[in-house]
Amino acid sequence: QVYSVEGGKVTLQPIVPDQLKPLTSILWKRNDNLVVEWFKKLDSTDYYGAFRGQTNLDIETGRLEIDTLDGTYSGVYSVEFNGQLQSESYKVDVIKKVPKPTVVLKPLTCPNEDTCTLICDGDTTGAEPVTYSWRTDQRDLQKSEKSIKIGKDDSDVQYFFCQMKNPVSEEDSDPMENPASQ
């Protein structure tokens, strides 16, 4: 699986078996739809649909580069060399960067004797899969959920931070003062 950032570029680098060298034809497909085809005999390279103007094929190596990605380029890519479908396919997922998260307190006040919840908040639509991590001004917390519970046991902590991360980006929140220590 290949993750690529929206607006970025992806390169698919297949291995050409020795018995198929030199290449006489290359055919790339996404979800069984034509992306590009090249025939040495015709000395022509044809790009199809949304791939026209966004894609570059290296006719020596079969490498496929796609620029300015958006979600429409997600899918399973396959390649044929000299008419033979290659066993390796490439699952491409184009995703957004994670936003800068905000630490949100629930409930809005945190009485000393009770626990409250901190939520690592931000719109992650189109940025999945997202993982979360938490730390304080003193240590990393062994928590990987979107929210954590805090209470009077955490009164020695001054600040909490959360991080959102996906395969193409990561962002840290600004510090949030510990509501349990106020």
From TrEMBL:
The keyword Signal applies. One of its GO terms (cellular component) is membrane. Residues 101-181 form the Ig-like domain. Keywords: Glycoprotein, Membrane, Signal. PROSITE patterns: IG_LIKE. It comes from the Eukaryota. Gene3D superfamilies: Immunoglobulins (2.60.40.10). It is found in: Membrane. Its main location: membrane. PANTHER family: CD48 ANTIGEN-LIKE (PTHR12080:SF125), SIGNALING LYMPHOCYTIC ACTIVATION MOLECULE (PTHR12080). This is Ig-like domain-containing protein. It comes from Myripristis murdjan.
